[in-house]
Structures are given as C-alpha cells and as structure tokens.
Protein: NADH-ubiquinone oxidoreductase 14 kDa subunit
Amino acid sequence: MVNKILFWSGFGLTVRFWQLGIEMRPFFSQPWAYPIYGCIGASFGYWMQGVEGSQMRYLRETRDRLVEKRRRRAEREGGNIGNVGTEYQKEQEGLFASPKVLVERGEHVPNGTVERTQAAQ
Structure:
C-alpha cells in the first residue's frame, strides 16, 4: 500500500515541477505548493489502493462461486470434476489461476477423496 502512495505522491511533485517548467518560472518561488501537490497525489494513490483491493475481492468471490458451482454440478452428475479451467490455468498458482481440485471416485478410493493443493487453500 505504501508503494502506491509514495509513487503517486512523487507523481504529484513531478506534475508541479513540470508545470513550473512549462511556465518557465523558478522552481522554489512558492515552496508551500509542493506539499499540496504531494498530498493530492498521495490521496489519489490511497484511493487507487482501495479500488484495487475491492476489485481483487470481487474477483476472488467470483472465482470461488464459479468453482463451487462446478463442484456442485460435478457432484450432481456423479462424475469427476473435469472442467476447472484450461490446462494453462490448472498449472498456474496465484489469484487468477483456477484452484487445483482433484476429486477421485472409484473402488480404490473409499467414499471419494477430495485433494486440494495449496493453490486451492
């Protein structure tokens, strides 16, 4: 979170330098304006951090709902979960990857076993 705030704070200061450079005015004629531009940039960075957090939460909830829906459908149809994403997604780790879920049913597996790797937990 701090990196976004620092970046946008620096961006606000850069905008002030750019503005004075375009106007061909001395950089330190009004030094009180720099903290204002820095604070404006920092507040924008803080707002962007909140937007990113809410978008990531929405993506996680949507992914979890989709995986749960696929699991229920597989249980209803009585088969294995065969479609939890593309092959590329199955091999990936992280937020945007499909969780690796393996459901085995058969004579050698009593009552079906659900194994979840660390991506699914």
Q: What stands out?
A: Confidence is low (pLDDT under 50) at residues 116-121. Strands lie at 101-106, 109-116.
